[in-house]
Amino acid sequence: MARLDDQHLAAAYRRDARRLLIWLTRRTYDGQLAVDLVGETYARAWESRRRFRGDPEDAEALAAWTYGIARHVLADALRRGRSERAALQRLHVEPPHLAADEIARLEELAELGSLRATLAVALEDLSPEQRDAVRLRVVEELDYPAIARRLGISEDAVRARVSRGLRTLALSVEVPGA
Amino acid sequence: MSGRDPDAILDELGAALEGAWVRDGARRRLALPRPRPLRAGRRGLIAAAAVALALVPTAIATRDAVWAPDPPPLPAQLRPRDAVVPGTAGTPVYVGAGTQRDVAWRLSATTCRYGTIEAVGLFLSVPGGGAGARCDVAARTPGASPAALAARRVQTYYDPASNLTWAFGALPAGARAVDVTSRPYGGGTPATARIAAATVDPRAVEQGHLPSGVRVFVIALAGGRDVARVRVSDAAGAQLLSCEGGRCDR
Question: Mutate which of A8, A42, A49, A93 to disrupt the B interface (most B C-beta within 10 Å)?
Fold first, then answer.
C-alpha cells in the first residue's frame, strides 16, 4: 500500500478543508481562529503522516483521520484559550490574516447567525461567569479587550472563560463531526 | 489584504501548506546521516596536511563559523522531469572567505552524492549577490549525468555591482596553483592570472562530508570576462586538471 505523501494530503485538503473550516468556525465562533486551526490540523497531519494506517487513496478514511486530528487541535485550543500554531510554526507557515469583512463572510458561510440564536438558549447551561463571557463574545460579538474591560478581569481570564464555555456548549449544540 | 472569500483564503493557506510540505520533504530526503568520526590515522593526515599547506600563500581565510546557511531546496514542481537528483546532500559549510579588489566574498560548499559519484556544489556570496551550484541547483539541467555534474568544478559569476568577474572552483587534494585564462566580453586579448589553491579547514571537510583534502580557489577579475580555460598544477608544476567551459577533464 502506498504511503501517505504530500500529494495525498494536498488532495485531501482540497476535498475537505472547506467543510473543516465551517465545522471549526461553528465551534469556535471565531473565523480567524478557525483558519488557524485548519492550518494547524493539516500541519499536524503532515507531521503524523507515517502513522496513517489506511489507504491514502481512500478519501473517506483520510477525511476521518484528519477530522480526528482536528478534534485534538480544537480541544487543545479551547483548553488553552488561544490558537494552536505549533506545527504551523515548525513548518514556517503563517496562516492568512483575515480582515473584518473576510471574517464576516466566513461567519455567514458557517451560518453563525442562526447558531448564535440557538446558543443564546443553551447559555443557560453555563456557570454565570462563563455565560457572561460567552454571551459578550459570541452573541454580542465584542472583542476580548472590550469584554475584559466590561467584566473587570484580564484578557487571559476572558479567553479562558470563553474557551471553557464553548467547550461545554460544543457538547450540547452540535454533534461532533457534523 | 481584504475582500477574499473563504475559498480564496483556503486556497492561500493550502498553497502555503503544500509549499511547506515539499520543502520539509526535500529537506528530510536530503539529510545525511550523522558524520562518522574520522579514524585516528586519517585525522593525523589531515592535520599534517593542514599544517603543511598553511605555508602556501593564499588569499583565502577560513571563517570561525564553519556552518553555512542551508539554501532553500528546489521545489519539486520546478525540477525538470528528467533532472538528475542527488541521493543525499551534505550540510553546507563555509570553505573560504576573504576580500579581493575591495569586495568581500564567502564561499560555501555542499557535497552532493549521486550513487557512487560525488560532486561538490560551490556557492559564492558577495555583497548584494552570488552564484554557484548547490546540489539542487546543480541538478536542474535536464539530461545532465552525475558524471557531468561532478566534472563541473569551475563556476563563474559576473557581479554588475562591482564590475568584477569571479571564477571559483573545487579542486583535488594535490592542487597547488591555478591559472585562469580569460578574455573581455566580446573578444580581446586573453590574459592569464595565477592564484594558489587554498586549503579548506579540516572541520569544514569533516562536517560537510567534503572529499578529503579538497582545495578551492576564488579569483576576482576586473570587468566582464569570459573564463576560457583553467589549468591546475600540482606541487611539482605538473598539470593536474584542465578545464574548458567550467568542465574539467577529471
Answer: A93
Question: Which chain B residue is nearest to residue A8, measuring alpha carbons?
Answer: B18
Q: How far B88 CA lies from chain A's nearest CA (Å)?
A: 20
Beta bridge partners of B117: B114
Task: Give contacts of B4 with chain A, Cβ < 8 Å.
Answer: 96, 98, 102
Pick the CATH number of A6-90 from 1.10.1740, 3.30.300, 3.30.70, 3.40.50: 1.10.1740
Q: Give per-residue pLDDT as tens, A1-17.
A: 678 988 899 999 999 99
B143: in domain: yes
* Cα A147 from Cα A132, distance rounded (Å): 9
Give B94's pLDDT tier (boundaries 50, 70, 90): confident
Q: How far apart are CA B106 and CA B125, in angstroms?
A: 5
User: What residues in chain A have their Cβ under 8 A from chain B's Cβ atoms?
Assistant: 5-6, 9-10, 13-14, 17-18, 21, 35, 38-39, 42-43, 46, 91-96, 98-99, 101-102, 105-106, 109
**Rg of chain A taking only CA atoms, in angstroms:** 17
- Structural domain containing residue B205: 40-248
State pTM to two decimals: 0.43
pLDDT tens-digit map of A52-63: 988 898 888 899
Query: Across residues A147-164, what is the average pLDDT?
Result: 87
Q: CATH second-level architecture of A111-173?
A: Orthogonal Bundle (1.10)
The residue in chain B having the minimum alpha-carbon distance to the alpha carbon of residue A36 is: B13
Comparing alpha-carbon positions, the chain B residue that sits nearest to A103 is B6
Mutation test of the interface with chain B: which of A91, A103, A108, A112, choosing the one with the most B Cβ atoms within 10 A?
A91
Q: Is residue B199 assigned to a domain?
A: yes
In whole angstroms, what is the distance from residue B65 CA to residue A151 CA?
Answer: 54
In a domain, B197, yes or no: yes
DSSP B156-218: EEEETTTTEEEEEEEE-TT--EEEEEEEETT----EEEEEEPEE--HHHHHHTTPPTT-EEEE
Is B2 inside any structural domain? no
Q: Where are the domains of chain A?
A: 6-90, 111-173
Q: What pLDDT was estimated at residue B81?
A: 57
- Domain total in chain B: 1
* Average pLDDT of the residues in B15-25: 87
- Please name which of B182, A135, B81, A59 lies closest in space to residue A67, comparing C-alpha atoms: A59
Confidence class for position B142, pLDDT limits 50, 70, 90: low
Give per-residue pLDDT as tens, A71-113: 889 888 877 766 778 899 888 888 888 888 888 888 888 877 7
